[in-house]
């Protein structure tokens, strides 16, 4: 027994995402919102599995995702909390 696989592996593209695939996923999510991730690839016209789409959105494409270095205030907050709480 066990979990049901996230998708049928046949016909699913693997490897790096292209800019075109990113645009399709962003456009679909911004238009329709985050819905059932298993249905997203088919509805968005992608040859990826739902799990791959969810991870791409969550880890790379979300508009509220912060990239880059910590600000000085954030750095100081980490230092202060470490001094107060330890490791």
From TrEMBL:
<keyword id="KW-0804">Transcription</keyword>
<keyword id="KW-0238">DNA-binding</keyword>
<dbReference type="GO" id="GO:0000976">
    <property type="term" value="F:transcription cis-regulatory region binding"/>
</dbReference>
<feature type="domain" description="HTH myb-type">
    <location>
        <begin position="9"/>
        <end position="65"/>
    </location>
</feature>
<dbReference type="GO" id="GO:0006355">
    <property type="term" value="P:regulation of DNA-templated transcription"/>
</dbReference>
<dbReference type="InterPro" id="IPR015495">
    <property type="entry name" value="Myb_TF_plants"/>
</dbReference>
<dbReference type="Pfam" id="PF00249">
    <property type="entry name" value="Myb_DNA-binding"/>
</dbReference>
<keyword id="KW-0805">Transcription regulation</keyword>
<dbReference type="InterPro" id="IPR017930">
    <property type="entry name" value="Myb_dom"/>
</dbReference>
<keyword id="KW-0677">Repeat</keyword>
<dbReference type="GO" id="GO:0005634">
    <property type="term" value="C:nucleus"/>
</dbReference>
<dbReference type="InterPro" id="IPR009057">
    <property type="entry name" value="Homeodomain-like_sf"/>
</dbReference>
<dbReference type="InterPro" id="IPR001005">
    <property type="entry name" value="SANT/Myb"/>
</dbReference>
<keyword id="KW-0539">Nucleus</keyword>
<feature type="domain" description="Myb-like">
    <location>
        <begin position="9"/>
        <end position="61"/>
    </location>
</feature>
<protein>
    <submittedName>
        <fullName>P-type R2R3 Myb protein</fullName>
    </submittedName>
</protein>
<dbReference type="GO" id="GO:0046394">
    <property type="term" value="P:carboxylic acid biosynthetic process"/>
</dbReference>
